[in-house]
Amino acid sequence: MRAKDFHCWLLEADELTPSQRQQALEWFDQERRPEDVIRSIVDAEPNCPYCHHTPCGHWGNAHGLPRYRCCVCHRTFNALTGTPLAHLRHRECWPMYAQALIEGTTVREAAWRCGIDKNTSFRWRHRFLALPAQAKPQHLHGIVEADETYFLESHKGERNLPRPARKRGGVAAKRGLSDEQIPVLIARDRSARTTDAVLDRADTQAIRAVLEPIVDPDAVLCSDGNAIYRAFSKQVHIVHKPINLSAGIRVVDHAFHIQNVNAYDSRLKTWMIRFHGVATQYLPNYLGWRRCLERFAETLTPSLLLAQALHGDQHLMQT
User: pLDDT of 138-148, one tens digit each?
Assistant: First the structure.
């Protein structure tokens, strides 16, 4: 850039809002040392991704990252080997793309910000979300609220459709619940631990397969009046508190309700609107994306999101 143009650009910077100035500072910081963001979230000497032996010796550098050689299997690798981000290029754009994910931007908007192709942006999105989609709590305890929500089935991106194509984010051909609606189970305890699952059918067998391994035996399950939760509670012998919403009842015994899970459902549905329909095959990734945003809230930074994309919760346990 010419000196004259640069000074004109500086004068225009005075018109930035405080929020825009903060975003600009973060952008410059990421652009100045992009590799520092990557190196700050990986181990100095990672375990061998092939035989999991440690420690491993340094083996030079390649593509801007240190290489290592396992002392047991003698294979070489770098800090990205075996992670969802392996073999992706333009690492200098990763922090900026992570920030776009935090803000919940569309594929095209994220591509425009990072100066990459929209197809690359789409591929990055699902690479970044692969591990967060698997990061679910192992246990729900205390008062556990459960509810099912529904998303319209979508074959977006597929070539051979089983039905006539419709406009993105369209509506179902039938009113109410039907085979066009994909059930998603949401379960959340009072500590804000949240899990979810895309179900083939909203029946007792599917509910039990999801909830039985994670709901503690001494937990209290709160749900609406759907009979599948009552049947599940009897099968696994846990206390069940149904909330008869159709009768106008919102709280039972001043403690039992499903307002937390219903509020989460509402935030999830509102957040999903910006994508104009999510392909059903990618729905678990979007559910994991939303869980990650809710879990870390204001503390979620590009570095933390990259750590989740690379190692999942293993990074948190190590730190």
Answer: 999 999 999 99
